[in-house]
Each structure stands twice: as C-alpha cells, then as structure tokens.
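ENCODED BACKBONE
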Amino acid sequence: MKKMAVIVISALTWLGCGTQGEEDKGPAPPTLLPPPDDLAVVEKGIDAVPEADAIQLDWLPPEGQEVTGYRLYRRAGQSGSFLLLKSFKAQDTTFVDASGVAPQTRYFYFMTSIDHGGREGPPSDTVDYMLVPKAFNLHCTASLTPVFRWHIDTYPSQYVLKLFDLSDESKVWFTVVQSDFADLDEEVAYNWDSTAVTPTLTAGRTYRWRVDVVGTERNSGSESNWSRFTAGR
C-alpha cells in the first residue's frame, strides 16, 4: 500500500512539473499566412504590394489565448541573425514591411506573442519572400477590347494581369500570360483566353489594372503600380 502511494505521488509530481514546464513556454505564437494564390481576388498572406518595394504579412491570432501583442522578427538573406522589426497590439493582423526591403533579396520572418504578464512565447513557423523587379510603363489602347502593354527589366516565366471595374471594385478579368522571351516589351489582348466576365468592356466606364510578375523561384514576385483607363475614350 505504501509502495502504491509513492507511485501515485511520484506521478502527480511529474505531471505537475510537466504542466509548469508548458506554462513557462509562454503564449502560443500567431500563425503567419503563406503566399496567396496568384489568381486570388483577396490576397492574404506574405506577398508583394503594388505601392512600393515592400512585403505584406498577414497572420491569425493564437486560438483560445489572450495576448497583449506580438513581435515580428526579420532576417535578410540566408545568413545573419533575426532582429526585432516591429511590435504590434493584440488586434493587429497585417503589416507592410517597407523598411529597406530590396528586390532580389530573400527575407525571412517569424512572430511571437506577448501575454499579460509580459512573457514572450515561442516563435511561429518562419515564412519567406523575395521581391523581383516590377513591370512598369503600363499602358493600353482605350477601346472596348483593349490591348495591354508593359515593360520589364528581366525575363520572368509568366505574368498575371488583373483587371477590375473601378465603380464597384469587381473582378473583370484575371489572366496568366506566358513570357515571349523576345524582348523587354510585353502585350496581351483583352479576353484572349475567353475568361473575362464580359466579352467587351463598357463604354465610358473606368477600369484599373496591374501586372504581377511571377518569380522563377518559390515565394517570389512583384506587383506593378495600378494603371487606370476609361473604355472607349
């Protein structure tokens, strides 16, 4: 009987130590989202942005835990150390990193959570992304079936052209364009693949479009600045 009591007490002691050890790890980290699909309408996850040479990050808060904030760490390139980039409040779920981000350099990120006691939890999984040079000098014919043209500095394997109706921000046409590798000027005619919402655009309506370069390496690419035009003018 005494032997059984010793075993029970030892087991409880071990369980108590295990629970204490888990508590000492601190709050669970947020979940950093991976890159979105190239043809996504709503782009959530680590990705390029049109406005600048910058990388957007999105994350989900840890489930079932109350935290007071997060910390984001970044490393540039394959070597070197992760450094604290920015701290966030608990309600934050997105951030655009424009702090010295340069094309052709891969950036690695992880996040941690902070609890009410000020403890910092373990790191999240690491995500990474590399910007490539943007498409530029976007222009198009202002017809109801326009031809879209742009320039590049390097040869990617493919592009994604995204066209929206500016009046309600609805998707009109997303298309994947393979590079012709002929020169640094590219073009594509509207609805060449018969996937547009309408076979022709509406006269007098304003549209916006951009060209995303799909990088040849994993988790890499860029998004051009937006360009606008009014159909039929």
